[in-house]
Amino acid sequence: MLVLDVATTVCIGLLIGVEFAVSAFINPILAKLEAGARAEAVGMFARRLGFVMPFWYVGSLLLLLAGAVLRWHGAGGSLLLAACAIWVAVIVATLLVLVPINNRIGRLDAKAFPAEAQREHRTWDRWHRVRVAALAAAAVCFLVAVRV
After folding, report:
1. pLDDT-based confidence at 24, cuts 50/70/90?
2. In this predicted structure, what is the pLDDT of residue 42?
3. What are phi and psi of 126, to 5 degrees?
4. How many CB atoms sit inside 10 A of residue 95's CB?
5. Angle between helices 35-70 and 77-93 in degrees, nearest 10
6. What is the pTM of this model?
7. For residue 120, what are the CA distances in angstroms to 70, 74, 99?
8. Closest CA to 15 of 98, 139, 145
9. pLDDT by residue (tens digit) across 55-90?
10. Three-state SS string across the chain, please?
């Protein structure tokens, strides 16, 4: 179980770190760029992360579920179940809210970043912060569960 716990910790920890970096560092820096450069950079990030993240999120969920199954009747089982439930809720919210916005941003013309696209990017960023907080809560549930 130690190998599973380490793999899960590394996988979800890195994912949350990337998501936090987008929110705390990348997007604030991008907001300072001129519109054309910003549109190009935002589009590149949207396409790259939009390609990788679905696999990473599902892989993380599978690791969390494996830990929950193995500890189902043991100490920390309910916390692992909570971590899984939060992770599933994040994935559903991502698919319903963030992915459509991300896809529209990813198709932006690299020469322009119209006001509507800028508004959508700010909306995406607000929802993204909520997602980062939820992921952090899931990670705390997981980490406490494996220490019990």
Report:
1. very high
2. 84
3. -65, -50
4. 12
5. 150
6. 0.90
7. 41, 44, 12
8. 139
9. 999 999 999 999 999 998 888 899 999 999 999 999
10. CHHHHHHHHHHHHHHHHHHHHHHHHHHHHHCCCCHHHHHHHHHHHHHHHHHHHHHHHHHHHHHHHHHHHHCCCCCCHHHHHHHHHHHHHHHHHHHHHHHHHHHHHHCCCCCCCCHHHHHHHHHHHHHHHHHHHHHHHHHHHHHHHHHC
The Cα 16–Cα 31 span in angstroms is 21
How many residues make up the chain in this entry? Answer: 148
Structure tokens at 71: 């500890």
Percent of the chain with pLDDT over 90: 69
Q: Which amino acid is at 35?
A: A
Task: Single out the residue of 51, 56, 48 nearest to residue 16, CA to CA.
Answer: 56
Alpha-carbon span 4 to 6, nearest angstrom:
5
Q: What is the mean pLDDT of residues 105-118?
A: 75
Dihedral, 85, 86, 87, 91 alpha carbons, nearest 10: 100
Task: With beta carbons less than 8 A apart as the criterion, state whether 35 and 112 touch.
Answer: yes
Mean per-residue pLDDT for 105-119?
Answer: 76
